[in-house]
Amino acid sequence: MHETLFSSTEGRLLGIGLTLSALVLLALGVGWLLFPDRVLIYAAMTGLNLTIGRAAGMSFGYANGLGHARVIPLNMLVESIQVLVVYPLFALSWRQLITLRRLQPYLSRLHGAAESRSDVVQKFGIIGLFVFVFAPFWMTGPVIGAIIGFMIGLRPLTNLAVVLSATYVAIGVWGLLLNELNAWAATFNRFALFGLVLAIMLIAAVINSLSQRRVRPTKNPRH
User: Fold this and answer.
1) Whether the model pTM is above 0.90
2) Are 45 and 74 contacting, i.e. CB atoms less than 8 angstroms apart?
3) Could you state, in order of their start, the residue ranges of all structural domains in the chain?
4) Gap between the Cα atoms of 19 and 9, Å rounded
5) Taking the mean position of all CA atoms in its chain, how far away is CA 135?
6) Nearest Cα to 144, choosing from 166, 108, 172, 111?
């Protein structure tokens, strides 16, 4: 079973993703012992990216005085790890090489989000996938993009190259934009931009949740 799992390209990518995850956790742990105040900012920026999104994590970093040289590479690393873990897990689960009962609801939601957008991406192929990952719209991004790439039949390494290159370009653009906005917003409060980003993303999440409820078919009442 393990030989079959890691003999596939997705299995090896998963191994890389898990190794990078362990190294990041180790670095944060060591840093916490040596420089707890500094590491707390990096840990918070990482957590915000994973739970809320790129804009929240990056704006928090800029609000705390970090420059491009720290904010951009860290967010590139975080999103690379996301892709290198979630995308292989989805592909291996889809091929029934592994069984992930606890993660199945999450993977099913990812599949639904990717399936609803795959037709548009497929029309334009690699260029469409690049634009999809780069575009700052709700439920776009590297993880969904990588799953769409898998669903439309791209080879794993091609899929990964397109998704990560689009991700890195997008992070660079976000960095330039957020840094300028933060410099302006800091005249009011250094966390003003971060608070605005959180508010916007909260509103977007509520709107998305309400729209999903509306499209769900209603069950016929029992008579």
Assistant:
1) no
2) yes
3) 2-208
4) 15
5) 13
6) 111
